[in-house]
Specification:
The chain is α/β, with parallel strands linked by helices. It is built from 12 helices and 13 strands. Helix 8 packs across helix 9 and helix 10 packs across helix 11.
Length: 401
């Protein structure tokens, strides 16, 4: 009996290995267009899709990739649906579009204003969709970003992704991977946030130096640059607001996403000082008093004094450090308040998961106000309770720092 069972198990495993080894068809590498970036726009009721495809440009017989060149090519397609647009792009270049290695997904401004609900129908059903792909909103069109020639690194898409990760680590932007965007849009009334990426004007200068061995003159080639400073806020799947750089950092404090950042604070005695935050733990909590709802941002923040621009009398006292700590708390309070006002009070976007917090805090209060909760956001206030400490190690000398 045991032998029969073991035989059945082995045969079943072999059958699974042979029949269920893959969920997609296989293609040869030379038949595949490996996508590194995707841009989606909408114009004249048609979806416009732009693909940045890996296309190595060798520097010689022994080198397949030339690191001094942008190793990519651009393929576009349009259609009434995203699937139709992708098919049109496939027909233009004759290879199978493979998005399993995609790094970034850029959404055009017009599509964001109209609503991005329809893109999830395509990407959630696509087995090749990478859940950790970085999602961005273009300042103008997604095509402008995807086709930008960034002469840094091997691939422009890789450079953009590295930029996103670096600026997020340094407390500059709110990072938005696809899985988080899809989850938030589905659970929180179409609310989410994503970085806004923009193309800066190209710059060039003339180099007219003369003389010298091998001397000569020539133009420094223009290089396109990109910047990521603002954050797009969505509600009901549509773009509803944009946060500036300070508001974006306020959002990061509200969501406990600050890993490290630098504040510039003023003291009457020291002038401008750079305060490097190296440890930050914040938590947004609901406060329910009767039928009144508010929120409080609590936090414990540690920082070090990195730079002092000017002294009034050449010394810094312990009181100056206390003054700087209070100034930093005021900066955080203002940035968090500005972000909270724009997101919650003005646009009723629940990207901070406020409704879920209230449900966990007081289920009866939530049940009573569930239907009008989004309208309640217009009047909700925010308070802050911050413990900000500047590291004094190595700075203290009696009464002077």
């Amino acid at each position: 009996m045991k032998i029969v069972r073991l035989t059945c198990v082995v045969l079943s495993m072999m059958c699974i290995m042979l029949c269920c080894s893959s969920c997609i068809s296989s293609y040869q590498l030379n038949q595949t267009a490996i996508v590194q970036a995707i841009g989606i726009d909408k114009e004249n009721e048609l979806f416009q899709v732009t693909f940045q495809i890996y296309s190595p440009k060798g520097a010689g017989a022994s080198t397949a990739i030339d690191t001094s060149k942008n190793n990519s090519s651009i393929v576009t397609g349009s259609g009434e649906t995203l699937a139709a647009a992708v098919r049109a792009a496939t027909q233009k270049q004759g290879k199978v579009i493979f998005t399993g290695h995609n790094r970034i997904l850029v959404i055009g401004r017009l599509l964001a204003q109209e609503g991005i609900e329809n893109i999830f129908s395509y990407f959630n059903r696509n087995a090749l969709t990478r859940q950790n792909v970085q999602v961005l909103m273009a300042e103008n069109t997604a095509e402008e970003i995807v086709t930008t020639n960034i002469e840094q690194g091997i691939l422009a898409a890789e450079t953009i992704r590295n930029l996103i990760e670096n600026t997020q680590t340094n407390g500059k932007i709110y990072e938005c991977p696809y899985f988080e965007l899809s989850k938030n849009m589905n659970l929180y009334h179409g609310a989410s946030a994503m970085p806004v990426i923009a193309k800066e004007a190209q710059t060039s200068s003339d180099n007219n130096q003369e003389g010298g061995q091998g001397g000569g003159g020539g133009d420094i080639p223009s290089v396109a640059q990109i910047k990521v400073e603002k954050t797009a806020i969505f509600n009901d799947y549509k773009l509803c607001a944009e946060l500036d750089e300070e508001q974006t950092r306020g959002l990061l404090f509200l969501k406990d996403e600050i890993q490290k950042t630098i504040l510039v604070a003023n003291s009457p005695n020291t002038g401008k000082c750079s305060i490097d935050i190296y440890s930050c733990q914040t938590k947004l909590e609901p406060v329910i008093t009767g039928q009144t709802l508010s929120f409080v941002l609590k936090g414990k923040i540690k920082a070090s004094l990195d730079e002092v621009i000017a002294f009034e009398d050449g010394t810094m006292t312990a009181q100056d450090i206390v003054t700087l700590e209070e100034a930093c708390k005021e900066i955080i309070q203002q940035e968090a308040q500005r972000a909270f006002t724009t997101i919650v009070n003005q646009n009723q976007s629940d990207i901070l998961y406020l409704e879920n917090m209230v449900l966990k805090k007081d289920k009866h209060f939530w049940e009573k106000h569930q239907e009008e909760f989004l309208q309640m956001l217009k009047e909700i206030s925010l308070q802050t309770e911050l413990d900000f400490q500047i590291d004094r190690s190595g700075l203290e000398t009696n009464e002077y720092i």
